[in-house]
Amino acid sequence: MSTTGPSRKVMLLGEIAVGKTSLVRRLVHNTFEHNYKATVGVDIYEYRVAPEGLGLAPSRQMSETGGASECSGVSETSGASQGGEASEGGERAEARAAPVPRSAPAPSESPASGGLRLIIWDTDGDFGEAIFSHVYCRGAAAALVIADLSRPETWPSLGTLAKGFASHFPGRPYELVMNKHDLAPQVAEEDLAEQGGVSGLGQSVLLTSAKTGDGVERAFVALARKIVRRGL
Ligand SMILES: Nc1nc2c(ncn2[C@@H]2O[C@H](COP(=O)(O)OP(=O)(O)OP(=O)(O)O)[C@@H](O)[C@H]2O)c(=O)[nH]1
Ligand SMILES: [Mg+2]
């Protein structure tokens, strides 16, 4: 597991069973489970987006490794470590979230040379909007807001959670995601903002399937690019 280079804390937000855990497990482990096991509290993972994925000029070292991004191993923790970073170990994270550094990374730790480590906080969908005042959210740099394409009753939460995140974390980016595209493959991405009732947010909605892997890396990389572009 890579433990060097800049890291930023990313929240996974969405109602119960929309596929938050499945998405991050697909990203980090390239696995998928049909059995539903609710997240209790939060689990933490780490994923490194390489400079190429961020749209930055790769260093010589990075260009030798190739690939736009890479899985840097599981980091589900039994307690969030200081700095909002994950450490290896048990299964469950506790409410010891610490802020992500707010200042720009030192030159030697620039995303241009080492990529960006996303410290992904996979929350329990039961929190709803209460998540924003929870310590788990402290220091979040960005969020992936997720709804379930196959369950329209979850669609309004895209808007409420995105707006909630924007008001509690002004200036921090988010991506909107409709997951489970495999269950409704006829749906097109350009229609989603309208269908999800979020066209007013001025942002497109990305389609993903944690089951097939479609769109999963693209969504996380898009978020990482926004973090870097905003200098967070
Ligand atoms: N067909 C299909 N099923 C999915 C997909 N993503 C998740 N699922 C299923 O949906 C159920 C819920 O997935 P989870 O990833 O546990 O959902 P969650 O959002 O983490 O749920 P909570 O932790 O309770 O908030 C599981 O049975 C998954 O197998 C997908 O892309 N396609
Ligand atoms: Mg979960």
Structure description:
With 232 residues, this protein is an alpha/beta fold. 24% of the residues lie in helices and 18% in strands. It has a single domain (7-229), classed as 3-Layer(aba) Sandwich (Rossmann fold), CATH 3.40.50. It has helices spanning 20-29, 51-54, 60-65, 111-114, 156-168, 192-195, 216-229, and strands at 7-14, 42-49, 69-70, 116-123, 142-148, 174-179, 205-207. Residues 20-21, 39, 122 line the site of magnesium ion (MG).
What are the defining features of this structure?
232 residues; alpha/beta; Rossmann fold; seven-stranded mixed beta sheet; 7 strands; 18% strand; globular; binds guanosine-5'-triphosphate; binds magnesium ion
Task: Give the secondary structure arrangement, pairings included.
Elements: E1 7-14, H1 20-29, E2 42-49, H2 51-54, H3 60-65, E3 69-70, H4 111-114, E4 116-123, E5 142-148, H5 156-168, E6 174-179, H6 192-195, E7 205-207, H7 216-229
The structure holds guanosine-5'-triphosphate and magnesium ion.
